[in-house]
Amino acid sequence: MAGADRVNNQNQELVATGKLCKAVPVGESMRRQRGRPAGSKNKPKPPIIIARDSANVLKAHAMEVSSGCDVNESLLSFARRKQRGISVLSATGCVTNVTLRQPASSGSIVTLHGRFEILSLLGSILPPPAPPGVTGLTIYLAGAGGQVVGGCVVGTLIASGPVVIMAATFLNATFDRLPLHDDQQVISAGANNHQQYHHQNNHQNIDVSTCTGCRRI
What CDD domains does the entry give (predicted)? Predict the structure, then answer.
């Protein structure tokens, strides 16, 4: 009995010190623990804050031209003062005293008097200095009698009531003369192996400064 008591005392000491493993049922020993271990959760990532706009980002604008103001001159003034390029997408409203160049009639310049509703207004406006031919507006108008007239705006475009323009503005624009040198070599080789074209590639970057927000012009 003394030996059995001594063994029991030793087992109790091992259990107390953690050196003796407890018996585990066979089913529990084969079972894997599910889920992530304690303390292994993904830590939340700090938010990404962009403090400065990219040079290639586009900004949407809703511009309202007041009645009696020149739409074309108002857009040119906005681009010059804010140093941003403008891509005009659409416009609603009415204009009067329109001066247009109509390519269908040998490029003649005509001035239309009266009130016309804007059907379409497209174009690009760049602050100076800008390459020639890049800046300009094309407009289509409907008269009181239902006639439709259009052309390139070359003079005044006076707003007859509020004119709302949807546009996108940008900081940088790249001016390229096409076709590019590599593209032209491929085209000339496919058309005629004995004929070669040489063209100087003119690549110009137009950089304008940063501007924020929409303005009423």
Answer: DUF296 (cd11378)
